[in-house]
Amino acid sequence: MMNADRFTFTRAIAACLVYGTGIDARSVEDVVRSALDNAPVAPSKAMLEELHTTVTTRLHDAGLPEEAQRVALVYGGATKIKGYVFESPALPEIRGASALLEWVNDHHLSAIWRETLGESLGESCIIYAGGGSLLAFAPVAKGAELAGRIEQAFTRQTLTANSVAVAATFSLLELRYGRRPLDFWADAFLDRWQNLHLRPELEAYYYAPLPGSAAANLSDDAIRTAVPGRALTVDDISAVRRFLNRKQFGELVTILATMFNRRRDERAYAGAPRVLPLYPMTPWAERCASSDVRPAEWRGTVADETRAYSEPSARKRYVGQLIKRDDDDQTRWYTSTFAWRAPDDLRNRSWETRWEAFLAKEGAATPYRCAMDQQPNVTPPRDLNEIGAASRPDRYIGIIYADGNNVGRLIATLSTPDDLHQTSAHLSTAATDAVFKALAQCLRPAEVRRKRQRAVVHPFEILTIGGDDLLLIVPGSRAFDVALAIASEFERSLAQNLPAPSDACASNAIHTRYIRETLVTREPYTPSVGLSAGVVVAQESAPIFFLRDLVEELLKRAKKLARSLTGQRYYGGAVDFMVLKSVTMVADTVETFRKAALHDESDRRLTARPYTWHEFAGLLETARALKRSRFPRSQLYRLRRVMETTPGVMTSSLEYLYTRVRQKDANTMLIEHIEQAWRQADAALRRPATHPWLLRAAGGHETIWSDLAEIYDMVSLPEGEDGQRTV
Length: 727
Known about the structure:
alpha+beta; Alpha-Beta Plaits; 4 domains; six-stranded mixed sheet; 30 helices; antiviral defense; GGDEF_dom; nucleotide-binding
């Protein structure tokens, strides 16, 4: 990440400094470069003061008084995104809401910068725009105005989506060394570090550098230059390393994020009062069939359905139809009633268009494209039923919600705007490529019936791929394979573009509960940024807002396991999942359900979730081995019932051995894929496992058997083994 030409924003910063003054920006570029590119990595307080004097004097000589030697940073984006996207359970409206929000954030906001500052300067000021947020430079005189226009843009285009934007001004010295370095530097920090009452707060803010970061790579001698004339102990050097790790450009991003959150909660903070859209529901008005909280402004037929829409919901449906490439006749219900029109480039920027562009180039040789070549017309799915139709068993959908691990902390410790720009680009590219490659390898176009006519659809829906997080809907029986393929490709890609620390653990070196090889270990890599995911499989008729809450909780549980693995210097991700055969299975949260049904917090857990990706690949392979050997499903469930109802582990272990002996055709398979493939979680535990129970590092036992029973029906055999017909 660090290189000689890292400050590609030098010209943009220089242009923002002289904006509106008539001064040639080229006359101050060298000053900007000296303050940023040529500045010492670990300066002392005296060096900072000297640098400040030099920069201030040179800018003053160029015609800029000291009070004008600042630039603005603007940070903003949508809030409560999932509440807006999943307000309606209908797929066309979910699709339209997601596409509209993404277009506003990724493209329309950048256009506002170009319109306000000019084409060249506006484009060069954008540090990143994606994943639901934007960060950009601006002249001081335009910072607050542009922040206000961000909030206005979301309201004008979506009518109901919430958004927040804030702006703050910083000096050149702050762009390199964080907030107000002249007022508080390493020597003052060390004085406060000695106060044991203050240390917990200081540790929370000045956290330890991530392995491989610029601060972590500083030598002890370099750190001593920041506090000259003072004998530093090992603890002092570690403390100063924490301080220097935080006092970089990333600290300004943290400040803006804090301002963002406060304005979201207080409305009138950091600018003019934020106006929230409100559509009062009067007693005599007809309710909007989509939102159920706004009065309907139109009633009629859309795609053979009688619907009553408010204008915000109508926009979602209209955009969803455009993304699906409906013609003018099919969207006339909207265009003949409402004045707002979708921008011309929205359709061209849809995930559908990008997916087809991928299949035409990078994915031309994938199984999906080969199957697609045999079909004259493959269209997007109209609803969740058409995605569920591609599942075996049918009528099940899978929701995958994934997010990168520790990305926020990584961004907070980046040294420069260019580092942030490059990192966000790597994350976005890795996520998009991983999703497309996984879909092209794991799925095929699916045949569905529409009014007794045959149609072929893309059996998935990409709701968002923003930065390091992604949300998509796929057929239930393919959800686990798609999630695994996405994680593997994402982590491998970032391992090349954002190299892991030299002492990081490779994917085949960490101790896991699964011993055999999987796709994660056959071609090992050393992950630098892991991807964790929550996966929920449920019937297509399940309430989408309910599934959204479940998958978010599953993701949090997976991230908790991933964080625990960093102690072993492993930075890969993890996964947690749930298969719902009935919505009433979970009446509250995942935690409450598992505590009651799976004894999740006892010393005898009836589940081994969450899993690392290697373990998850092993679990899928174990389930496939059970299917290949035609292990009776009734025996799988019977043994799970025995484990649930009998205390201890010996009775159920004897029952397992009895079952294994009786199932002669499956005896060898159980030995190979259960007893010889799975082991206890802690390498220090020398006691042999009592299968199907595994010893836990924290004491007690856990088992994969309930997890196998849960996923059994949703694990597909490779093509040619399951006898299923493909399109």
